[in-house]
Design goal:
Structural class: alpha+beta
Number of domains: 3
Strand content: 25-35%
Distance between the termini: 133 Å
Strand order of the largest sheet: 3-5-8-7-6-9-10-4
Shape: elongated
Helix content: 10-25%
């Protein structure tokens, strides 16, 4: 009997030692937490608490979410107006912002084409202000005058200035646009600006110089000419030295022509920011000469909100 008990005890000890050895060498039955299907699963009876950090794919996603966000690169050019598929008319004003690598010496080429790529008008966009040497986005503006005739669709093409002429440095963006249907009949008129190249040192401030405009034919030619004047010189005309002393945004409140006398009344925007007798003389001359191009007008009387006596004071 004693031998039997000793025999059974020996078997139990050998079995226990075998189990401990298996767990020691293979670790398959150790008490721990195991990551399965992105969750912690209790294996055996672990003495430690469940890990607090995530496991598997979730853990990786949590780490990715904690990565710092990278700032997007500054674009080379952003166009504000016109937008894609806008309807445009002449003169067309293009505005936006451009980065330093896009332009050279403060300008870059702009053109207008039909949908086949045939060029309708060309010009240059000019960086505004004295910030064109910065590496940040700076505002630009371009104006294109054109006659679209029967063209209905086309593209504004803004080209990266490429003084090297190398094809690998060339770049452009194209904005699809639609053309406003024009009156088939047109009228050529004149508008007048100051130009120091024509008038060196601007000795005579009342001397202004004409440029031509082609506009749809209208019964109100005098008003149309003034409205064209208030648009200011085009980009190309600015390059040639033309500039206007008239504030942007001036409104014509009333225009009458009787017995050769044109009486035109403007809002107060016309006289805002006045400074210097030369400027007031140029403003008066620009309006007067633009109206007197018509044979029906011999004299021009300018008023602001009905006032004629104390306007355009230096």
């Amino acid at each position: 009997m004693k031998k039997t008990l000793l025999f059974i005890l020996g078997i139990v000890i050998i079995f226990s030692l075998g189990m401990l050895s298996a767990r020691f060498f293979f670790g398959g039955n150790e008490d721990t937490w195991i990551c399965e299907n992105n969750e912690w699963i209790k294996h055996g009876n672990p003495s430690m608490e469940m890990p607090k950090e995530g496991c598997g794919t979730i853990e990786k996603l949590e780490k990715l979410e904690k990565l710092p966000e990278l700032e997007p690169p500054i674009p080379l050019i952003k166009v504000s107006t016109p937008k894609e598929n806008d309807t445009i008319s002449s003169p067309l004003e293009i505005t936006g912002q451009a980065n330093g690598p896009w332009y050279f010496e403060g300008s870059f080429p702009v053109k207008l084409t039909d949908k086949t790529g045939s060029v309708i008008a060309t010009g240059s966009a000019q960086v505004i202000g004295d910030t064109w040497m910065t590496e940040d986005l700076v505002p630009f503006k371009a104006t294109l005058a054109f006659d679209n005739k029967d063209i209905t669709e086309g593209f504004i093409v803004l080209e990266k200035d490429n003084p090297s002429g190398l094809p690998e440095n060339a770049q452009e963006i194209k904005i699809p646009v639609k053309f406003e249907k024009q009156n088939s009949e047109t009228l050529t008129i004149k508008v007048f600006f100051q130009n120091p190249q024509e008038n060196p040192n601007i000795i005579d401030c009342s001397k202004v110089f004409e440029v031509t405009r082609v506009i749809p034919k209208t019964q109100s030619t005098a008003r149309a000419a003034l409205e064209e004047l208030f648009k200011g010189p085009t980009t190309e005309e600015k390059v040639q030295g033309y500039f206007s002393e008239i504030n942007s945004g001036v409104k014509i409140q009333k225009l009458t022509i009787v017995d050769g006398i044109a009486k035109v009344d403007f809002d107060k925007r016309l006289e805002e920011g006045m400074g210097g007798s030369c400027r007031t003389a140029t403003i008066s001359a620009q309006i007067t000469e633009t109206l007197k191009q018509f044979s029906s007008i011999k004299t021009v009387i300018i008023s602001i909100d009905g006032r004629t006596e104390d306007i355009l004071q230096p």
